[in-house]
Amino acid sequence: MESTESSYVSSPEAPRKRSPPPPKSPTSDSMEKPTYIRFLVSNAAAGSVIGKGGSTITDFQSQSGARIQLSRNQEFFPGTTDRIIMISGTINDILKAVELILAKFLSEIHAEGGDDVDPRSKVRLIVPNSSCGGIIGKGGSTIKSFIEDSQAGIKISPLDNNYYGLNDRLVTLTGNLDEQMRAIDLIISKLAEDPHYSQSMNTPFSYPAPQNTMSYGPNGAGGKFQSNKEDRSNSVTIGVADDHIGLVVGRGGRNVMEISQVTGARIKISDRGDFVTGTTNRKVTITGSHRAISAAESMIMQKVAYASERVIQID
């Protein structure tokens, strides 16, 4: 039996030069059998996928042949402020749709962050807990082979026990677009072999409410609180690398305004040159209820995660 925390991550330190992997040769039955994949997107990214009047999502469906569905506004995956995209169809159609969506996200990130944006980004897939064993394999053999084949980092999260009845786990893929697409191809082909995997297709966005919520108190320490305590105003400060602060602010302040509007938190970013002591990290102060702070911090960390892991908590 696999452990509750299964983490196998390839080393991203040195750039790798390699020929593209040979195409996978699954059986014709598995390629033609309808299946699906789900992954997380920010609220802003969801709007980008939909497009004006639904033009983008219609175009992507037409190009790929797959069906693309999104959870409603404010309908988030438990413990996050991210919406859910489900893409269904044959494996080939799904892969075409996923690549169209991820390529659009990357082009928009590069437009905001310029040449400094790290080409390695993250995609978080949603996989039923019962299907994770097939991805991991005996002694981790399958997931290790997927990492070796795709060159992507692959990490499977434990179940979040704060949500009674939650049976899905997040599978985080780290790499460039080609590496991520190869990993998704391998994973979805494996999932399609699991007869129980298709059962979640009927209720892709149905999740239980939390029993309690994890957030940060005034001193930055983690703790649980009941919903009737969330009206108290608190403040927490995090540090974000100076060269990545633009990803948090966004063009014309768009990102930081969106985070404030979605979460209800007030966000203040220190002036240029005003760093956390001993670092070159700018101070980002978040003020509001426990829930607002936690949600805003999660959204900020997601923005920065595309470029760097250097978000730190100030005690």
UniProtKB/TrEMBL annotation:
GO molecular function: RNA binding
SMART domains: KH (SM00322)
Limits of the K Homology domain: 33-106, 119-192, 232-305
PROSITE patterns: KH_TYPE_1
Alphabetized UniProt keyword annotations: Repeat, RNA-binding
Region Disordered: start-end pairs: 1-31
PANTHER family cross-referenced by the UniProt entry: KH DOMAIN CONTAINING RNA BINDING PROTEIN
Protein name per its UniProtKB record: K Homology domain-containing protein
Organism: Carya illinoinensis
High-level lineage: Eukaryota, Viridiplantae, Streptophyta, Embryophyta, Tracheophyta
